[in-house]
Each structure stands twice: as C-alpha cells, then as structure tokens.
Amino acid sequence: MPCGLFITLEGLDGSGKTTQINRLTAWLKKRGCTPLVTRQPGGTATGERIRGLVLDSRSAGLAPMAEMALMFADRAQAIAEVIRPALDAGQIVLCDRFTDSTEAYQGGGRELGSAVVLELHRLLCGNLQPDLTLLLLPGLEASLARARRRNQRTADESGSDEGRFEQEQDAFYGRVWQKYREIAAREPERVVLIAGDLSVDEVQEQIVEAVAERLIGLAAGVRNP
What we know:
The protein is α/β, with parallel strands linked by helices. Helix content is about 55%, strand content about 10%.
C-alpha cells in the first residue's frame, strides 16, 4: 500500500478544478507539505502527446473505444512513471482527473458503461484508488460556458486546441454529470461531492475541511475516515 496520500479532483470542464488545485497546493505548502501536482491526460512526456491527440478538435473521428484506450494508456504510464513512485516516497499527490473521469466521460458520456472502465482500471492500473476524490459539480450550463470561453481564449493566445470535448452536445454532458453523481453515491467514503454554484472561497473551504480530515487520519495511520 502506498504510504503517501493520493488526492484527485474531478468535475466537468469549467468546474473550477484548476483554481482549486492551485489554492490547495498553496494551503498545503503553508503547512509544510509540498505536493506533487499532475494531470490526466498528461503529466508525462508520453501523456502530453496523448493529451494533444485526444483533446484536439481535429481528432473528430476518434472511436469511443479508441478514445478510452488512449486515456488508459496515459493513466498507466502516469502511474508507473509519476504517481506510484511519489506515493511510495511518502508524498502527497494532487491529480487533476483520474479514472472517475473516464467512467464519467467514456462510460457515461459515450455510453460505454461503467463495467468496462472499472475492469480496465483493475487490469491496467493495478486498481490504484485515490484516498480522497474532490468532485466539483456546479451547474451544468455555467460549467460549459466557462469551459468554452476558456478554450477559445487559450486557442487565441497560444494556438493550441483542446476543445474537442466542448464541441459535444448538452445531452452528452448531461450523461457525464449524471454518471459523476452515481460515482459519488456509490463511493461516499472516497468521494466528497461539492455541488451547486458556490463561490471560489466556499468551494475551497469544503476542500480544505476534507483534506485536513484525511491528513489527520493519515497521521493516525487511518486511510479513510
């Protein structure tokens, strides 16, 4: 069992994950903990190449199963190269997305189902589970609007294109949103659901409370509350 603490942040694009990861990183550093921060897809040289392929709008013809396979190739590499070594060294790992994203987007959004996602996670990822997942679920319309504005701004400024998923119809995101709710209901000890159109400070307050609880548990030798 890893001796570090593995924390993942989940939610729709535009839910505020990046802002909260930055804030949580600063909060941890003030308390003497410098976390390893990574993301999926991405986080390794191989993963960044996969990210470019999967998120680029020009990959419009990518089959759902191929899309899912690429997500797991990225994840398996990240676990082997980055996440597992950091946990074994006793570090706190903050990861922007993990297998819950695949279950929500490919299992729910693409309608591939949860079973195949969970089985691939068992086979390819050694069934590595986060100690804590912070699931941000503000209103669907607001999240999508923020994500589309952000991707357009990024494309205008840098020329990069990560907007393939934002081109999906609202029905796709409705399925993703619902699958995230199912995951939270299925695993309440791991997943902390932070729902509703809260302020940035209100979201951070709930995140800090959940993380502080896990850190106390870790110090006492307890992995879950």
